[in-house]
Structures are given as C-alpha cells and as structure tokens.
C-alpha cells in the first residue's frame, strides 16, 4: 500500500510539473517553445523562440515531452493564463488580476507598465521583456493573428510586431499559395531592437521603444 501511494505521489508531482510549464519558454530537451496550447516554435541557440509557428495535429497539445505534441491534457505546457497563483493571475501577456482564495477578484484587473509582461514566476508580477522576461500567457491566443496582420498589409517584407513596446519582434509577411502568410521572428541578442524606420534589427534602441 505504501509503495502504491509513493508511486501515485510521484505521478501527481510529474503532472503538476507539466501543467506549471510556462508559455514561450524553450525546452532544453526539445529546443522548442510552446507559444499557445496547440502551437510551438523552434528555439535559437540562446533559447529564444523564433521563426515559423507550427501547429500540433488534431486533438493534441503542445507539451514539454520529447514528442512535443501530446494528447494528454495534464501535459499542456502553455496553460497558465487566467490561473490564480498565490495572489494574482496573468490575464494576458501584459495584464493581471488579483486573486483571493484561488479565484480572480472582480474588477481587480491591471496592466503592466509599457515594455513589461506578466509572468507567474515573478513575485513582482511584471518584468521587462527586453531583458528576457517571458509572459505566462500566449501571444497567439490574443486578437493579433499573424495571418490577418499580413492580409491587412498585403505587402511582402518585415513589419514591427503590433503592440510590442519592447520592439523585440517583427513579422515577416509573404504571399504563398494564393494567400498572405507571415512568420514571427525575435531579434537576436546582439541586435535586440526592431527599427520601424529601417525595418531591420539594431543594437540601438529606437526612441519609441521601452
């Protein structure tokens, strides 16, 4: 009986470990990062998710397992949005709400400062995205759909990622298969800012960036 309880305890800890994995964090095992419940990106050598967004097959979710996509809901890696921790929950990439006894307090939702994102791993709630803080919520579960963005632009090339005051990302739009498509890229560490003027990554922070 004691052995069975110990095994059950180990399994529960493993499940909690999977469910507590954040969005946008590169896995050392797979070199991929879950960017939504069903999507992932490859990671650079300095552990930054970048490039095309891949979608898991039907009825599977992005996980931290070696297979990347899993049908087990307990292994979903990007599922911390709107989940209360000790005293707050991230409600968006740059917003949070206060919690009481495991529930969000009504009308107690706030925004992070410009250039900051909400992370459940921080006691300060919000941190600077330019210095490497990644949000607990998905950028791609929000209204800013990359495909719709490029459809609106109807032009090939690089564009600043919308509503990103840190200026760390850009969207590369292209026309393929009779439709406008786009991929999201992060600027490299050596040149961490995307200039809306020159449309390239630069080491100099643009004046409109935080």
From TrEMBL:
Any one GO molecular-function label of the UniProt entry: chitin binding
Keywords of this entry: Signal
Residue span, Chitin-binding type-2 domain: 147-210
Gene Ontology CC entries for this record: extracellular region
Signal peptide positions on this chain: 1-21
Domain of life: Eukaryota
UniProt name for this protein: Chitin-binding type-2 domain-containing protein
Native organism taxonomy: Eukaryota, Metazoa, Ecdysozoa, Arthropoda, Hexapoda
Gene it is expressed from: Dana\GF20076
């Amino acid at each position: 009986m004691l052995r069975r309880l110990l095994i059950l305890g180990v399994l529960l800890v493993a499940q909690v470990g999977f469910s507590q994995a954040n969005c946008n964090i590169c896995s050392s095992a797979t070199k991929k990062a879950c960017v939504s419940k069903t999507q992932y990106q490859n990671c650079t050598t300095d552990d930054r998710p970048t490039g095309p967004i891949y979608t898991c097959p039907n009825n599977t979710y992005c996980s931290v397992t070696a297979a990347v996509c899993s049908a087990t809901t307990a292994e979903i890696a990007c599922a911390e949005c709107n989940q209360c921790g000790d005293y707050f929950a991230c409600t968006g990439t740059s917003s949070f709400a206060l919690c009481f006894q495991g529930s969000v307090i009504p009308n107690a939702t706030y925004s992070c400062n410009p250039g900051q994102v909400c992370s459940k791993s921080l006691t300060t709630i919000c941190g600077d995205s330019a210095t490497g803080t990644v949000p607990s919520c998905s950028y791609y579960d929000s209204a800013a759909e990359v495909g719709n963005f490029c459809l609106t632009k109807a032009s090939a090339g690089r564009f600043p990622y919308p509503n990103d005051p840190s200026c760390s990302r850009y969207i590369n739009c292209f026309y393929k298969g009779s439709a406008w498509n786009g991929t999201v890229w992060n600027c490299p560490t050596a040149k961490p800012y995307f200039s809306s003027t020159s449309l390239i990554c630069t080491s100099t922070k643009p004046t409109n960036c935080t």
